[in-house]
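Continuing the batch. This is chain 6 of the set; chains 1 through 5 are on the previous pages. Same settings as before, nothing changed between runs. Recording input and output for traceability.
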Amino acid sequence: MGFLVTWQLRAEYAIRQRLRISSQRLEELAFLLQEQARHRERLESEIAQLRKELERYADAAARERAVLAAMRQRLVELQALSGVRAVRGPGVVVELRDSARALQPGDDPNLTLIHYTDLHAVMATLWAAGAEAMALNGERVTPTTGLSCVGTTILCNTKRMAPPYVIAAIGDPDRLLGALRAPDGPLGLLLAFEFPVTVSRVNQLELPAYRGSFQFRFAKPEMEGGR
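Output for chain 6:
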């Protein structure tokens, strides 16, 4: 004990001599140092807590980004399915022309013309075979697209069209070609009546986006809660 007391007294004396600080001032500084040490511990604890909160926020932000990316991808898919986004991919092209065979006296001239029902039959066959997107003479076919005859022309999406009629469909080329070449399919009937028909496989088709607008007067989207 005597040794420790002597060592402390000598240390205090040395500090006073070197730093010119009194013992009372040294005690004050020691107290302030202890307070600063405790304050530092509190700050370190707060920093650790803030880092944990920051990690939670980062994880939540990452989940939100993933959800947002999935929503954007789903939006692109729906836009492609609805026809409002241009698409590309493999598929087939079908070209139909009016028949060039000579009419006999009394024959109906309409028998040598491609009608909207012929186009509709070919397009329905392609849809049934798994076509994912389609265009007629560069006009994108949508779920609300209608075909009708206006004189010797065909109306598609309010746009008048004349032969040759070119149907471009994106999908599995093998399945689409198999459906088109079926003996009892619409193309077989047209060929039987001497209508020029050309079917070709295309490795990369590009179909434009639908340029019109959608107007729903009766169909209303069902909201959450049945409202």
